Amino acid sequence: MCFKLEKTLSLSIQNNKVMAQPIVYATDSTLMGIVKQKEPTLVMVFLPTCPHCRAIEPYFREYSKQYEDSVNFVMEIS
């Protein structure tokens, strides 16, 4: 599986732990470390040309701010 990403927010991972970012943009090398954490993780696979992805993105961002202390929000851009 390959994850091609454009990093638009700074990714802060220390000791395999995501640090206070509403949305993390994962790479293939960091995704598994994020998903294996104790906190629940919600991964959004985003394709910029997909109308459904674009429709859901604002809600994903809103919830990422609302629940950033209890859920990891990860975006994978294809």
Automatic annotation (TrEMBL):
Residue ranges of domain Thioredoxin in the record: 26-74
Gene3D superfamilies: Glutaredoxin
Any coiled-coil regions, as ranges: none
Superkingdom, natural source: Archaea
One Pfam family matching this protein: Thioredoxin
Protein name in UniProt: Thioredoxin domain-containing protein
Source organism of this protein record: Methanohalophilus halophilus
Taxonomic lineage from the root: Archaea, Methanobacteriati, Methanobacteriota, Stenosarchaea group, Methanomicrobia
